[in-house]
Specification:
Layout (H helix, E strand, L loop, with lengths): L4 H5 L12 E3 L1 H8 L5 E6 L11 H14 L4 E4 L6 H12 L3 E6 L9 H8 L3 E4 L5 H17 L4 E4 L6 H20 L4 E8 L3 H15 L3 E8 L4 H19 L11 E3 L12 H14 L8 H13 L8 E6 L10 H5 L3
Parallel strand pairs: 2-10, 3-4, 3-6, 4-5, 7-8, 7-10, 8-9
Antiparallel strand pairs: 1-2
The structure holds pyridoxal-5'-phosphate.
Length: 341
Amino acid sequence: MTDLTKLNGLPRVKAAFLPTPFEEAPRFSQAIGGPRPPRVFIKRDDLTGLATGGNKTRKLEFLVAEALKEGCDTLITTGAVQSNHARQTAAIGARYGLKVILLLSGKDPGQAAGNYLLDLVLGAEVRFAGTDDEGEVWRRIQELGQELAAQGRKAFLIPVGGSVPLGAMGYVTATIELADQAMAAGVRSADLYVASSSAGTQGGIELGLCLARERGFNGHCIGISVARPAAEVAGLVAGLANEGARMIGADYLFSPEHIEVLDQYIGQGYAIPTPEATEAIKALARTEGIITDPVYTGKALSGFVDQIRRGRYFPGQPVIFWHTGGVPALFVYTQEFTRGR
Ligand SMILES: *Cc1c(COP(=O)(O)O)cnc(C)c1O
């Protein structure tokens, strides 16, 4: 049994409403699974609560605690213009009195909407890097940190998605939380699906599932890539899970071959909607009243639906969808949902 003293002793601020709900979705199960469907459960991390919620809040609880411990006065991070991570960083910074600078990739789209609008409402300083090159954006963030240091300030730099081992701890603890809820609902074994991008979420889940197994819950994670090739995501996931295990003294080793990532639901690219995701978003909204988004959770949901329709699960078998948030991004995709209504 892994000793969780190190994990539980990590500094952490309290910004999310936890535990988030874990609920069954019977009407959605019927709608997608036919007359004898599997039992679909949804873990509601869209309800972590901070400025419209999402998965990054769990990571930021650890990252911001570290920033405060180091005496930082500023958070700097990056993401795409509709980054949920950037928006949650803006919100948590506001809550802890930290200045937030967002160096977003690409160009200013002109009109502020969705997450970008919320970044501004939350008082973050938003700049655009004018490039999508992640390495280049990170160099610029480091320069910015040095400029602030020269002015006597202290910045805490957060890589894209908060996907560093410390951030992944948010999903190690989340997975233990989910396993306890699943077992309380009589579910001791299940596959669980999650949108995977910068890999900190799935990395944390993979390590968390090892710890959950020690407690009697047998889970397998399937990451649905929303941007990168599966092998690349699996490599990042394994790396973060390994570093995370070392950080908390857990005796587990992860290799990319044992990480399941599916990349056939990306469509034409990151943040480009697919017809299947649009259909899945409507199906969940119209059966359960739950909102997902075209960039992350809608694509993950389209993969989830497809795997169920291919007969991967027997009737009544529990299967879990991890809703990671992303709701504000939906508001910039009006055409997909108004055309041919
Ligand atoms: C960032 C994000 C993800 C992916 O999490 P990673 O840790 O980057 O893999 C999934 N869903 C939503 C809504 C996100 O904002």
